[in-house]
Design brief:
With 131 residues, the chain is an all-alpha fold. It is built from 7 helices and no strands. The chain has one domain (4-120).
Length: 131
């Protein structure tokens, strides 16, 4: 069984689509597993903050704002929190589910489940380009 850090590192290819933005924000410092872990953790914290502070549909709007700033995994992670969170005793399985969901979503797309849940089309959820 993978350690949680090794599991996250094994998905470091998910950093590539957001690397440039994360370098600008200084959440990443290279195309490596350590940077990906930091970016993933920051994305998960942002999703968890939305999950605890907003109700729907404001939560979906907040997640889209995060994605438009380059945190493209936040909407998927928020969806994972709603659907899969079972408490601290289940963190390893939850992280695995989150990574699997992030890997299944393109760099600028959201899960079909997220879009159905929030009654938006994929075209409406495309993040805006950075200025």
């Amino acid at each position: 069984m993978f350690s949680q850090d090794a599991l996250i590192a094994a998905h470091s290819s998910l950093l590539a689509p957001v690397l440039e933005t994360m370098l600008q924000y200084e959440y990443g410092w290279g195309n490596d597993a350590e940077s990906w872990q930091n970016v993933f953790e920051e994305s998960l914290v942002r999703a968890a903050t939305i999950w605890t502070e907003y109700e729907e549909p404001e939560a979906a709007d907040a997640a889209r704002r995060e994605a438009s700033m380059g945190f493209v995994h936040v909407p998927v992670l928020l969806d994972c929190l709603w659907r899969d969170w079972r408490g601290p005793a289940h963190v390893p399985r939850f992280i695995e589910c989150c990574l699997r969901e992030c890997a299944g979503v393109g760099s600028h797309q959201y899960s079909v489940h997220f879009c159905r849940r929030h009654d938006v089309g994929l075209a409406q959820t495309e993040p805006r380009d950075q200025p």
